[in-house]
Amino acid sequence: MRGIGTRASGIRTLSIVKSGEDLSEVVLAALKRAIDNNEISLNDRDILGITESLLARCQGNFVTFDNIKEDLINKFGENQEVGIVFPIFSRNRFLLILKAISRSFKKVYVQLNYPNDEVGNPLVNNKSFRSSGINPYSDSFTEDEFKKIFTEEDMLHPFTGINYIDLYKSAGDNIEVIISNKAETILEYTNNVIASDIHTRFITKDFLKEKGASVIRLDEIMNDSINGSGYNKDYGLLGSNYSMEDTLKLFPRDGQEFVDGIQSSIKDLYGKHVEVMIYGDGAFKDPVAGIWELADPVVSPFYTKGLNGTPNELKLKYLVDNNKLSEEEMKSKIKERQNTKQESLGTTPRRITDLVGSLCDLVSGSGDKGTPIVLVQGYFDNYSDE
Prior knowledge:
By secondary structure, the chain is an alpha/beta fold. 32% of the residues lie in helices and 15% in strands. It contains twelve helices and 14 strands. Strands 6-7-5-4-8-9 form a six-stranded mixed beta sheet. Helix 3 (65-76) packs across helix 4 (91-104). 39% of the residues are buried. The model has no long low-confidence stretch (mean pLDDT 90).
């Protein structure tokens, strides 16, 4: 019996990857070095993950504040007021977007969720919030009203130490902050709205449109190139990230041909059928602060077809606890379920791309590990495999 199950290895590129490089060559060269150094060997059904930032950078998929401003004026007109509802609290994800929006309109109203944003970042610490007697389902506040209830210390993020009301106010002199969980509150200030939530954006837009608002979502901004800029027809500004002071890197586009091409090249070079995926943020939740990590619109925007679906699993402890089976009988039962394509039993069904993409994100990290390529091996193995 095999002594090792699923394992994941971060792979370094030969150098820092820059805009305009051929990412296929970069990935294949990094693999070759690791193989030649006897650090890895490839097997059929291994999974190769490549971080989305690498693909977007090689594509040159960047936009400037001026590009965003032109697109917004095209959509709303000049010299307008606009409301932003439910942005996440993030220096890298939303602050630059807000700066670009601020330059595009004469007045910007920013409506924040409380006590936490959509992905769990706290606007005010939960202990102080619980003792405040506030009803988050009905109570709305101006910035001044909110700051009369909570202290500066109450409003500091537990990890970054940032007060996000003050940070977002600093994005422009024309910004006014509102605190409310009711989307329609923004309509007391303006009828032009940018729905800035990520995973609930369709509901928010539809709701406000029914109320008579003129609404667009973040994924509807920068869908097309402006004066040769980058763009993303599917996600627009969603999934964008800080690049330079007046420039954002967008989520990658047109990646299906890339992952299929890498898969084909590995087959030609090494004779192995390897699945390939582009991954972004992992979908996991911090157990201390309750922050849900997924600030990208999806975990994996592009992947080869072998990664479709959910794992066909049978939880071993379910078998052990509920059946008096020998080890060989358990292996036989596992194989039987696989061969008959029965649904998973005892496990929560999740998409393979979400599970593996989250693993890749944890392995590569968000700092200076320098391993934007991750090789996952043995993922499709199970206890019955010899």
